[in-house]
Recover the amino acids of this structure.
């Protein structure tokens, strides 16, 4: 069991890294194989812009109260 450098890897061992890599690849393949329609980029960006704007507003409101 080889220990990995925390500077190079977030995993403690090669086995943990390999296990995560297998899991990740299965998740990606499942997503690629999913027959449901994707979400258009513009829609995702519009939703994220709204989320970010709301978070910024909440942050500004908190700093005004303090």
């Amino acid at each position: 069991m080889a220990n990995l450098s925390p500077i190079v890897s977030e995993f403690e061992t090669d086995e943990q890294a390999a296990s995560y890599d297998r899991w990740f690849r299965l998740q990606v393949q499942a997503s690629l194989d999913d027959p449901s329609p994707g979400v258009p980029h513009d829609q995702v960006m519009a939703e994220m812009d709204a989320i970010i704007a709301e978070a910024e507003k909440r942050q500004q409101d908190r700093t005004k109260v303090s």
Summary: The two ends are 52 Å apart (CA to CA).
